[in-house]
Amino acid sequence: MLSVKAKVGICIVSAISLGGLGYGIHALIFTDSLENYLSKYELSLIEDSAIDEWKQIFESYKLEKEGYEIDRGVKDENAIKGWCKSSLKKNIKSTYDPLFQKATRWCIEITTIEEKLKDSGEFEEETTKLTGKYIGLNPKVRQLVDKEVVTDTSENANGSKIKQWCDTNKKRRFVPENKKDFFLENIKKVCLKSE
To answer: Do residues 94 and 60 both lie within one domain?
Structure first.
């Protein structure tokens, strides 16, 4: 006959085993590959052969990687493509998983701010016209524009800085959920030709 201690020990071991088994089944049932999660949410992966789209993602990555950095050594679009390819087979538990958050930025087809504004007008190319907009810039935008490095030392230097800021930031991703997108709104005001 088993002692009370032995019976208690068997009960504890059984409870732990059942708990572990239950967790294992739960984890097995409620995880899925990153690729399947993206598919469930009808997000279109970038094709391996879509060279221009991978270049577009890399340009966006250079501007927006903070908080979503995938690797320190990302030097070109091939590094991002490789990361996406290897990550798609990994299992995740929810859309809150950091892997899902990064993949929705760097592995799916995107629309840039430039593409979004295509029907809103043309981008101003003349620095003389952009120079006239400098004085009326939102202070936060002016601060960002002033960080741009240009070789123009003429009276149009501020226009050159604005053009550089526009050319750089129009490559950012357009995010439809972000109703008050700082860059979209300011690029629309500053960078498009005045009518």
So the answer is: yes
